[in-house]
Model the fold of this input.
Amino acid sequence: STACASGATAIQLGVEAIRRGECERAMAIGADGSATEEALIRFSLLSALSTANDEPEKASKPFSKDRDGFVLAEGSGALVLEPLDRALARGAAVIGVLRGRGERADDFHRTRSKPDGSPAIATLRAALADAGLREDEIDYVNAHGTSTPENDKMEHLSLSTVFGARMRTIPISSNKSMIGHTLSAAGAVEAAISLMTMREGVIPPTINYDHPDPAIELDVVPNRSRKAEVRTVISNSFGFGGQNACLVLARDPL
Done:
């Protein structure tokens, strides 16, 4: 397990196995069913969960000034991976292309991210380099966006460092605002959502965004979905324990 990056790590491991010739195809699955009393207690002791219990549908509010923690959820996502030429040869419906992946560790703290964001920055740059893409070729960011005060601040810092002033205009959203945090499944679930974003031409919103944080200047696609042509996505997974993984996905083959 790589904690909240596990789903993305599963995809990376599948890609690497194919690249090494260890298999022709791989099914990468992220699944989690941790919404238990024990999990709630443990995450509460870490002050990681939202305490906005009176209106649970409004509790997850990534990038908002009044965010106070994530909402625990369960879910799963699965992707079938194979070389593009093999998929085309068998007449498969290609949903998208995984162009690149990056993975870096953060040894700063058991649950907290390094304040300067350097491990996440390195992960983003590694993914772009593996994809052979420039920063200005990314159309949308599927954020880790947990709704915790620290994560969202660090993610903003990391993205702004990599993408510069352009980050203010790149659409970025967190589906955790709508479905909660599926923990180990999140990376796979969000990869699937990223693929559907490109396929359908609709960017999912960040809901519950009623109080913008002046320290986080981002186009978070607030509260309503947005029609847009999206050809490339970078999907972030920054897990507890310093597990960082980013995937670069494209709509069309090279």
